[in-house]
Every structure is written in C-alpha cells, then in structure tokens.
Amino acid sequence: MNTKVFKIISITAILILCQISLMAQIKAITDTGDEVILFNDKTWKFKSEKNISISKSTNYFSKGSNSTFLVKSKINGFGVYINPKSFEFKRDTKNSDNEFDFNNRKKTIYGFMINEGIDIPLSNLREFKINSLKEKATGVDILDDEYRIVNGITVLYLRIRAITKDTGEIPLIFCMYLATSKSSTTQLVSWTTETNFNKSSDEIFELLNGISKLDIEP
Predict the structure, then answer these.
(1) What is the per-residue pLDDT across 59-85, written as a single tens digit (0 to 9) for each?
(2) For 163-218, what is each residue's pLDDT tens digit?
C-alpha cells in the first residue's frame, strides 16, 4: 500500500516565486494553481481565503491508558503516545516527508506522521491535503470535518473516503489529525480499507488520540 498518497508536498518544492512586495511578502503559485502569499515570519495564506464552515466538537479527547510509549519528533515539539502492544513504528528513511510510519500488529491499519518546522494555518493545510489526495485518487469524499481538543491541543480532524490508484477499486478510509503551533506543524494520519473501518475504528483512534505537544501534559 502506497503511504505517499496523503503526503503533503513541501512548500519549498511546490511554490514558484513570482513577485516580492515592499512589505516582504512573496506571492506564489502552487502546483495545483492556487495563489498564496508567503510572509517573512514563515507563515502563509491563500490569496483568496475560502469560506469553509467547520464545526467544533464539544467533546474532549485524550490518549488511552494503554498508550504509554512516546514517539517523539526530532523536528518539532510534537509527538504521539502509542500502545506498544497494538502498534509498531519505525522512523521513515525512504520518504523524505514522513518522519514516522505506523502499523498495527495485525497489519490491517497503517499510518504516518509528518512533522515540519513551519507554521501552516489549519485551513490552508486542509486544502493542501485534500487537493493532494484528489491528484492521486478518485471518489474523494469528506465524511467528517471538525475541530477537536485532543490532549490540550486544537486539531482539525478529517475522515475521508477515497480510491487510490494503487489499490484499484478498493475504497480506503483515511482519518487524520492536523495541528499547528508557532513554527511547527504536524499531520498524524491513519487508514484502513472501508470494509475494515467499523471494526478497526477504536484502534485507529487509539493511535490518533495519542497526539501530544511535549510542552503540554496529556
């Protein structure tokens, strides 16, 4: 299964610089044709922000009692607590974007974590993730979309159904938490087949709900 399907393309690789203003703002165009503005504080936004109404969950989410092993990023201040009896992980040395890869021990659930030292607004990160998936998959359908508080962190939760080119006609369900803070961004993504999702959802959220920012006690 191709773990690159949900990989966000590095901004330095996809942005074509086209103009610098007197305010040290850089206008650029992504490989999907969206115009963005880069600021000298390493933040950016779409030139024309899209008005997207995203609900806020009233529930509070926290790591499970069995999620005791901390997988800590060397890139920024994010990490994830995993249940070592349920999940395996490894540092990704082949994919330049993924810092960690995950799978459950039954090899029915997969995932990855991307950590970057740049602050990307969640609304913009959402659009890049969705656009990136649409380039590599068909039947992309956003099933859930909401802000959550997880271990004291505001995250954007997405659940998306898609059929990737590498899986033929087999639909996949992708679940992810996107989070950002000053000079850092993280993406924690997990997926399985659509037919396996209902019986595996607890295990998927056991992984996702382990997301942590190391200066916040989970």
Answers:
(1) 999 999 999 999 999 999 999 999 999
(2) 987 777 899 999 999 999 888 999 999 999 999 999 999 999 999 999 999 877 66
Structural domain spans, the chain: 10-48, 50-213
Beta strands in the chain (DSSP E): 16-20, 26-29, 35-38, 44-46, 55-61, 69-72, 78-82, 87-91, 100-104, 110-116, 137-150, 153-164, 172-181, 184-193, 211-213
pTM of the model: 0.76
The residue whose two tokens read 């399907």 is 5
CATH superfamily, domain 50-213, is Mog1/PsbP, alpha/beta/alpha sandwich (3.40.1000.10)
Euclidean distance between CA atoms 100 and 90, whole angstroms: 6
Cα-based distances in Å from 169 to 1, 103, 160, 194: 13, 22, 16, 11
* Nearby residues of 13 by Cβ (< 8 Å), 6 or more positions away: none
Say if CB 192 and CB 173 are below 8 A apart. Answer: yes
- 139, 163 in Cβ contact below 8 A? yes
